[in-house]
Design goal:
Strand 28 and strand 29 form a beta hairpin. The chain is mainly beta. Helix content is 0%, strand content 53%. The two termini are 27 Å apart.
Length: 329
């Protein structure tokens, strides 16, 4: 039997009048999204869920940045904070959990740092280790915008929007991040790499670039985790006179499609993926269902796409046409 009901967690920052994590129940049989609980949180900016589904982690924009661990109550979907630890820098913007749930990675946009924090069997966070980036580019100071594992074991990619590069780390056994072995990938000045997602075959990585509204594909060298650029496509696929910044990217579980969100154009762009060479074929854009789609996600079945529209304060639900990859709202 295919599971049809899931829980979705959404960060709500004080700018929307409410600082909390909102829980929704989603029924993929009907496409219905229903709010089920609101759990107090202190300016949560981004969220990631432990692979067991028992714990959630937020980066909180308070003082110099905090990472909070929560236990998820399976009966009523409320969150109870387990503990919190320093995130290693100001302006945290991203948190992720590795595949076995043993480490959490944090990107601190304002502090120019990346941290790795150990996770205990009870979901609690331990004290982390932090690396501070150095250097400048024409785009400005260093600004790590995300940090997560790639498809190669213990390889962590960090898109640095400020320096227009993707830094590759190896997670060592002692929990430290080592960037001395694998060279950085540089992209053209003013590109602004932001978030990335991996193709399910493990051979390709796709990076969304905020500043020039593009999506770049990379081939992954399996022996080392080194990235080799495949090509770049625009995320705004029709004439547009306004300002836009691309924000997020997701690859469909089938590997056939990729999706990117546009803030300003307020749209979701979708692309066909050639799973033999990784090339992207632009297919179109659809309205995001609201203003400023900061984050997008796909449900585990691959039938639905969600867009969290920051400035209109809602989550739009799209059903994906499996023949064309089109998100239908």
């Amino acid at each position: 039997m295919v599971r049809s009901r899931f829980v979705m967690l959404v960060c709500s920052s004080p700018g929307g009048g409410n600082s909390s994590v909102v829980s929704y129940r989603f029924d993929s049989a009907t496409g219905t999204l229903t709010e089920s609980a609101t759990s107090p949180a202190e300016n949560p900016y981004y969220l990631s869920v432990h692979p067991t589904g028992k714990y959630a982690y937020t980066v909180d924009r308070v003082s110099d940045g905090i990472v909070s661990a929560y236990r998820i109550d399976s009966s009523d979907t409320t969150l109870t904070r387990v503990n919190r630890q320093p995130g290693g820098g100001a302006g945290p913007c991203y948190v992720s959990v590795n595949h076995d749930g043993s480490y959490v990675f944090v990107a601190n946009y304002g502090g120019g740092t990346v941290s790795a924090l150990p996770v205990g069997d009870d979901g609690r966070l331990g004290r982390g280790t932090t690396i501070r980036f150095k250097g400048e580019s024409e785009s400005g100071d260093t600004h790590p915008h995300s940090a997560a594992l790639g498809s190669v074991e213990n390889i962590v990619y960090v898109p640095d929007l400020g320096r227009d590069r993707i830094v590759t780390f190896r997670l060592k056994r002692d929990g430290t991040l080592d960037s001395t072995v694998i060279p950085d990938v540089t992209v053209p000045s003013g590109t602004g790499p932001r978030h990335f997602d991996c193709h399910p075959n493990g051979q390709f990585v796709y990076v969304v670039n905020e500043l020039n509204s593009t999506l770049t594909g990379f081939e992954v060298v399996q022996a080392t985790g080194v990235l080799r650029e495949i090509g770049t496509v625009n995320t705004v696929l029709s004439p547009f006179d306004g300002e836009n910044s691309a924000s997020d990217v997701r690859v469909h579980p089938s590997g056939q499609w990729a999706y990117a969100s546009n803030r300003g154009h307020d749209s979701i762009a979708f692309f066909a993926v050639d799973d033999t060479c990784g090339q992207l074929d632009p297919r179109g854009t659809v309205c995001a269902g609201g203003r400023t789609p900061r984050t997008i996600a796909l449900d585990p079945t691959g039938r639905f796409l969600f867009a969290a529209n920051k400035d209109s304060g809602g989550v739009a639900v799209f059903e994906i046409d499996t023949r064309t990859g089109t998100p239908v709202w």
